[in-house]
């Protein structure tokens, strides 16, 4: 088949399905984005300002909020512009930048959640060695690795996708997605499929497996302990488990949407599902941690009450 040169623009075709609701959708999404930015910034501010919260668990929560800001900022400004536009063309380089930001955001969430699982595992299963194993240096190293490792792997896949010869420019999505671009290829995608599988295993299944393993060990330790001990563990681990489950469910919905072509059967449902993993975790995470962890809740409410005076 004849190779084609890359298109100058991609056309995001799914916006046609929300054309009649775009003003309502725009208003709602502006409010949503404002909440995401405000809530996550508030959580980061509270954790960084109060010395009592300068502990590994809280620093990892701040890192999760920082990643939410990163992912949301990589998605919402462009999405809001597209909602008001009549033509939904995105330049070729901008499309791959959006893919990179959204994919690294998603992978970062999983690596950060796996680091948080390690922190909780050591705190519950090896409490006497916690401050020897989870030192400030360890926190910095794990935090850096949680960002750099996905960044390098995702970059390798996207750079390979960017070199493909494409036979079209229509992406059935409301944002750029790597699989949708790959489907436009005029040439064999076997190498990219193998590379993508490797990246998926290392950035998704390994972290998922480790989180599950950590909580199985925590569950076994708690099984033989008192009700008071179980209550304390549940209080610190439940928000992390909720974040983990939410990320898994929303990520699965996006993968299922890409593979099973739901947009052809139910376009509106496809739009909603495609928004889930870039909207729900950044909205839910600050609420889960601020409302369920007493130390954070006390400082957040104190800061909000102080700002009203």
From TrEMBL:
<dbReference type="InterPro" id="IPR000725">
    <property type="entry name" value="Olfact_rcpt"/>
</dbReference>
<feature type="transmembrane region" description="Helical">
    <location>
        <begin position="269"/>
        <end position="291"/>
    </location>
</feature>
<keyword id="KW-1003">Cell membrane</keyword>
<feature type="transmembrane region" description="Helical">
    <location>
        <begin position="57"/>
        <end position="76"/>
    </location>
</feature>
<dbReference type="GO" id="GO:0005886">
    <property type="term" value="C:plasma membrane"/>
</dbReference>
<keyword id="KW-0675">Receptor</keyword>
<dbReference type="InterPro" id="IPR052921">
    <property type="entry name" value="GPCR1_Superfamily_Member"/>
</dbReference>
<keyword id="KW-0325">Glycoprotein</keyword>
<keyword id="KW-1133">Transmembrane helix</keyword>
<keyword id="KW-1015">Disulfide bond</keyword>
<keyword id="KW-0807">Transducer</keyword>
<feature type="transmembrane region" description="Helical">
    <location>
        <begin position="139"/>
        <end position="160"/>
    </location>
</feature>
<feature type="transmembrane region" description="Helical">
    <location>
        <begin position="237"/>
        <end position="257"/>
    </location>
</feature>
<dbReference type="InterPro" id="IPR017452">
    <property type="entry name" value="GPCR_Rhodpsn_7TM"/>
</dbReference>
<dbReference type="GO" id="GO:0005549">
    <property type="term" value="F:odorant binding"/>
</dbReference>
<keyword id="KW-0472">Membrane</keyword>
<feature type="transmembrane region" description="Helical">
    <location>
        <begin position="96"/>
        <end position="118"/>
    </location>
</feature>
<keyword id="KW-0716">Sensory transduction</keyword>
<keyword id="KW-0812">Transmembrane</keyword>
<feature type="transmembrane region" description="Helical">
    <location>
        <begin position="194"/>
        <end position="216"/>
    </location>
</feature>
<feature type="transmembrane region" description="Helical">
    <location>
        <begin position="20"/>
        <end position="45"/>
    </location>
</feature>
<keyword id="KW-0552">Olfaction</keyword>
<feature type="domain" description="G-protein coupled receptors family 1 profile">
    <location>
        <begin position="39"/>
        <end position="289"/>
    </location>
</feature>
<dbReference type="GO" id="GO:0004984">
    <property type="term" value="F:olfactory receptor activity"/>
</dbReference>
<keyword id="KW-0297">G-protein coupled receptor</keyword>
<dbReference type="Pfam" id="PF13853">
    <property type="entry name" value="7tm_4"/>
</dbReference>
<dbReference type="GO" id="GO:0004930">
    <property type="term" value="F:G protein-coupled receptor activity"/>
</dbReference>
<protein>
    <submittedName>
        <fullName>Olfactory receptor 51E1-like</fullName>
    </submittedName>
</protein>
<dbReference type="InterPro" id="IPR000276">
    <property type="entry name" value="GPCR_Rhodpsn"/>
</dbReference>
